[in-house]
Design brief:
By secondary structure, the protein is an alpha+beta fold. The protein has a 5-stranded antiparallel sheet with strand order 1-2-3-5-4. Bound molecules: adenosine monophosphate (AMP).
Length: 130
């Protein structure tokens, strides 16, 4: 069965899309730690990020860099942090999180509750900065 993230890429489940190329896809995390929290995934369905081939892992990181630079423009911050957990969804993903402090990277923090309009505005701001 396809992962929830493959179903997002296929358009079967809605998302707030940020960017896409032939191999990778970026969309907002639905339970964001901060505004601008974005996930980058390979379209290829692989659970563990370190099971990607060297070439695909390197290309995913380069794609994530483009998204991270756009997040930093759209949401001024000290730096955009990157994390990989993958304990919940078995489809490799990089979390990109604009940080004002180390505390913004604590996954145990309560998550933001945003309206659909707010998610849409955040995704368009990042897309526009790409
Ligand atoms: P983890 O696998 O531990 O890195 O966590 C999975 C992340 O995916 C969590 O931050 C979730 O909020 C996020 N997530 C799960 N389902 C969706 C979805 N349908 N759209 C956007 N983000 C999601």
């Amino acid at each position: 069965m396809a992962t929830i993230f493959s179903r997002i890429v296929a358009g079967e489940i809605p998302c707030y899309k940020v960017a896409e190329d032939d191999k990778f896809f970026a969309f907002l995390d639905i339970n964001p730690m901060v505004k601008g929290h974005t996930l980058v995934i390979p379209k290829q369905e692989v659970d563990y990020i370190f099971d990607l081939s060297d070439n695909d892992l390197a290309a995913m990181q380069v794609f994530a860099k483009k998204v991270a630079l756009a997040i930093g423009k759209a949401f001024p911050c000290k730096k955009v942090g990157q994390a990989v957990l993958g304990l919940e969804v078995p489809h490799a993903h990089i979390h990109l999180i604009p940080m004002q402090s180390e505390a913004d990277m604590l996954f145990s923090n309560p998550k933001l509750k945003l309206s659909p309009d707010e998610f849409t505005e955040i995704a368009s701001k990042i897309s526009a900065a790409m």
